[in-house]
């Protein structure tokens, strides 16, 4: 059974700092990995999707990397802003599993002024 | 763009009542899924569908039914509500293949 772990569970950083969120998974036979953002009381917003054949994806200040062989992904946020405060979730889709995602429990990020 | 629309946003039920959570998407996506989100447990897959007329069970299907009569709609039915089903429910959709999943804003359900 695929298990997804995110460390740390919570993180507080001052504005302007660069930071890294970690995601690890136990089964390396993944189809892709997706990073989401969730604001309190809201749904999930897709940030980045990395296919199993890719090493990284970038969108603005966000960069996600994937090392399938070691079962790890990182989300790098450059020059953090208070508006980045949210919970960040990673989810993996196993090969041959259609639309089924396995989620981590998330990292709650607070960016302070 | 409406994307994935879930109704209702909030609902309170009594134990033993039944209800249907609605999910509709306007992106012509083949894949649709239902997840529940509980504190400390992340999102867990309840049921999913890969196209109209095709559904399958996820990780936590007990107590829930689904059907997919059209591409657009994927309702989730609680047959006899139990307090353990108190949760936030999310519907998601994606097109076939490598595309990302899109989520609705969720339905917050409390069962007394």
Structure overview:
The complex is a heterodimer of chains A (113) and B (112). Chain A has 113 residues and is mostly beta strands. Chain A is built from no helices and 11 strands. In chain A, the strands form 2 sheets. In chain A, strands 2, 4, 5, 9, 10 and 11 form a 6-stranded mixed β-sheet that branches. The N and C termini of chain A lie far apart (41 Å). By secondary structure, chain B is an all-beta fold. In chain B, strands 2, 4, 5, 6, 9, 10 and 11 form a 7-stranded mixed β-sheet that branches. The chains are: A mainly beta (113), B mainly beta (112). At the A-B interface, strand 4, strand 5 and strand 10 of A face strand 4, strand 5, strand 9 and strand 10 of B.
Rg of chain A over CA atoms, rounded to whole Å, is 13 Å
Instruction: Tell me the quaternary state.
Output: heterodimer
Number of discrete helical segments of chain A:
0
Percent of residues of chain A in helical segments?
A: under 10%
Helix/strand-derived class of chain A?
A: mainly beta
Straight-line distance between termini of chain B: 36 Å
Largest interface: A-B, 23 and 25 residues
Largest sheet of chain A: 6 strands, mixed
Count of DSSP E strands of chain B? 11
Query: What is the molecular shape of chain A?
Result: globular
Q: Figure out the total of helices of chain B.
A: 0
The helix fraction of chain B, in percent, is under 10%
Q: Uncertain segments of chain B of ≥5 residues (pLDDT<50)?
A: none
Binned strand content of chain B = over 45%
Outline the low-pLDDT stretches of chain A.
none
Search tags:
heterodimer, A: 113 residues, mainly beta, 6-stranded mixed sheet, 5-stranded antiparallel sheet, 58% strand, B: 112 residues, 7-stranded mixed sheet, 11 strands
Short account of what is shown:
Chain A is mainly β and 113 residues long.
Secondary structure layout plus pairing:
The complex is a heterodimer of chains A (113) and B (112).
Chain A: E1 4-7, E2 10-14, E3 19-25, E4 30-38, E5 44-51, E6 56-59, E7 62-67, E8 72-77, E9 86-94, E10 102-103, E11 107-112
Parallel strand pairs in A: 2-11
Antiparallel strand pairs in A: 1-3, 3-8, 4-5, 4-9, 6-7, 7-8, 9-10, 9-11
Chain B: E1 4-7, E2 10-13, E3 19-25, E4 31-38, E5 42-51, E6 54-57, E7 64-66, E8 76-78, E9 87-94, E10 102-103, E11 107-111
Parallel strand pairs in B: 2-11
Antiparallel strand pairs in B: 1-3, 3-8, 4-5, 4-9, 5-6, 7-8, 9-10, 9-11
């Amino acid at each position: 059974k695929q298990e997804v772990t995110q460390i740390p569970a919570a993180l507080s950083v001052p504005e302007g700092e660069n930071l890294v969120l970690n995601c690890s998974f136990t089964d390396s036979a993944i189809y892709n990995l997706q990073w989401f953002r969730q604001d309190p009381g809201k749904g999930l917003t897709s940030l980045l999707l990395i296919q199993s054949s890719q090493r990284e994806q970038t969108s603005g200040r966000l960069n996600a990397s994937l090392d399938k062989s070691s079962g790890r992904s990182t989300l790098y946020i450059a020059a953090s802003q208070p508006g980045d405060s949210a919970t960040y979730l990673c989810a993996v889709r196993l090969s041959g599993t259609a639309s089924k995602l396995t989620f981590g429990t998330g990292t709650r990020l607070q960016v302070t002024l | 763009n409406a994307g994935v629309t879930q109704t209702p946003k909030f609902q309170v039920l009594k134990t033993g009542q039944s209800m249907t959570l609605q999910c509709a998407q306007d992106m012509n996506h083949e894949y649709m899924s239902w997840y529940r989100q509980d504190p400390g447990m992340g999102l867990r897959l309840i049921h999913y569908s890969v196209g109209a007329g095709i559904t399958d069970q996820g990780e936590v299907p007990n107590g829930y039914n689904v059907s997919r009569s059209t591409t657009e709609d994927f309702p989730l039915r609680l047959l006899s509500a139990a307090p353990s089903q108190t949760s936030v429910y999310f519907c998601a959709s994606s097109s076939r293949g490598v595309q990302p999943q899109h989520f609705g804003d969720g339905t917050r359900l409390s069962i007394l």
